[in-house]
Amino acid sequence: MTTADTPARALPETAATALAPRSSSGVELRGVVKEYGTTRVLHGVDLDVAPGEFVSLLGPSGCGKTTALRVLAGLERASAGEVRIGGRDVSGVPTNKRDIGMVFQSYSLFPHLRALENTAFGLRRRGVGTTEARRRAGEALDLVGLGHLADRYAHQLSGGQQQRVALARALVTEPRVLLLDEPLSALDAQVRVQLRDEIRRIQQRLGTTTVFVTHDQEEALAVSDRIAVMGAGRILQVGSPEDLYTRPATPEVAAFVGSSSLVPGVVSGGTVEVWRQRLPLVAPAADGRCEVFLRPENVRVVTSNEEGMDAEVEQSTFLGSIRRSLLRVADGSGVHVQHAADRGLTVGERVRVRLDDVAVLTRPLAG
């Protein structure tokens, strides 16, 4: 039996074929503003999502990502700007006419209906006959690996299984656009990873244009074609997971995407000096004292006869395949180092560290 804690069964190719959307549509937000009274939540948001693309809106709580999704869905009316789906302005079109599927954080299953009936609900509301609706709902449940649990009520399903049913219900109407509003945040860690990967696999098989809202950077990095990082109601940067991680456009993006340590440096002549090493810059910066963002995988513990900075181990954490250690460098700064699990570092041990020759982001020091 498939449970929420195990991967779904292998799926028949016919299930994905039967549920392939009529055609995926691109999505555009053009200068979208959203205000609640005198409070502006979205400040002129612009975003393009290509047909069949998986784009995540990533950012901390309160950054406006869910509001942007609700405006896209028609659940909120934009105060200004346009929403386009398939090139058509749908700003004044009600939600049920936008040809979208939506999955929320809460499962929102009807407790008095079985999984098959929950999945078929949207079809029945569209006037699809009982026999056809049951057939298509069964195919959708097969797609998410729950065909064998079609007769179970919501309370007989685990959290992960309920969320799969919610996903099947969103897909069964063959929407041109799928919207996912933090659908995994209520699940435990192991189930969250499994269902995250399942959503991406299904999306790739169906080719459905998908917009996914999350505050979990690991989720966004794992499933997205591109990520739009949001902060204070604005999009700070849009790019592939690799671009955002290796070439963040702003300190805010660097701080939110991945883990970084901040250490002192000095910018001059288009490079930055850190620990007596000169490193290239991700983005041009004015000469002067600065803070430098260092990724833990770009800091290396070296032998005592190699060039580097002296440091003392303050903490070392075992993370399975790797260790992450916190070191206090001779200049007083703290830096995280990622290294092999079999390279044990003990608290109080004296070591030497050196930086890889990779481009880094900086921000000027005030004053």
Sheet with the most strands: spatial strand order: 6-7-8-3-9-10
Structural class: alpha+beta
Alpha plus pi helix count: 9
Distance separating the two termini: 63 Å
SSE topology string: HEEEHEEEHHHEHEHEEHHEEEEEEEEEE
Poorly predicted regions: 1-14
Question: Which whole number gives the mean pLDDT?
Answer: 91
For the largest beta-sheet, the strand count, sense and barrel status come to: 6 strands, mixed
Shape: globular
Strand content: 25-35%
Radius of gyration: 24 Å
Estimate the helix proportion, in percent. Answer: 10-25%
Give the number of DSSP strands.
Answer: 20
Could you describe the 3D structure shown?
With about 375 residues, the protein is α+β, with helices and mostly antiparallel strands. About 25% of the residues lie in helices and about 35% in strands. It has nine helices and 20 strands. Strands 6-7-8-3-9-10 form a six-stranded mixed beta sheet, sandwiched between helices. It has a five-stranded antiparallel beta sheet with strand order 13-12-11-14-20. Strand 12 (about 270-275) and strand 13 form a beta hairpin. The longest helix is centred in the middle third of the chain and has 18 residues, at about 190-205. The radius of gyration is 24 Å and the shape is globular. Mean pLDDT is about 90; it is low at about 1-15.
